[in-house]
């Protein structure tokens, strides 16, 4: 069976600067896969390539065995891809429930969008905030609602870009449990995150990007002790 996500030999250049250089990575169903690396390593650029917002100069992206390298974001979404962004992208004047409804109406269960929205609100314990407008949420809760909205399209693969930024310790703990539950449901989760404790606690495997190249990959215990990884982080200004 193919992996939910297979990224092969991806390169991206901005002018003369190689933001990604021959990146190969996989994310499996049932796994939380971490993507870490110092600032400017190329993590967001790789997410843009995977979600179809940026065309690579070399390489391929396959979703569930389908080559989508030349496909736009909408076709990738139809292959089960959803993502969140580093900056919150909720509809600020809409309620939490309406933010989920808008997404659910684009997903495979659009005919039961209301039911999908309510089920996710319950699952993420957001019922008390269902009628609150997104603008009124704290950053930490706003990030949780972003994940909720991504779930409303029933993704097979979810890309999360720094979802725990702005969350307090208790929110992060709940969030870790949510990520594990998503994986156990059979979703492939690809997580970019600077909170190393969260990454090391929830991920099945971790890829480390530095200056556009994968310098290490493996289970958290191995990555934690990898000398090239420690050197890359120590070199960070
Ligand atoms: N639109 C762009 N034009 C030119 N250079 C860019 C552009 N986007 C990113 N870069 C450069 O590409 C490299 C990778 O950036 P990217 O944002 O992907 O890194 P990152 O690992 O996500 O960083 P951070 O952890 O700070 O979010 C950086 O050197 C960055 O300055």
Automatic annotation (TrEMBL):
Gene3D superfamilies: P-loop containing nucleotide triphosphate hydrolases. The keyword Disulfide bond does not apply. SUPFAM superfamilies: P-loop containing nucleoside triphosphate hydrolases. Pfam families: ABC_tran (PF00005), BCA_ABC_TP_C (PF12399). It comes from the Bacteria. The keyword Transcription does not apply. This is ABC transporter ATP-binding protein. The lineage of its organism: Bacteria, Bacillati, Actinomycetota, Actinomycetes, Mycobacteriales.
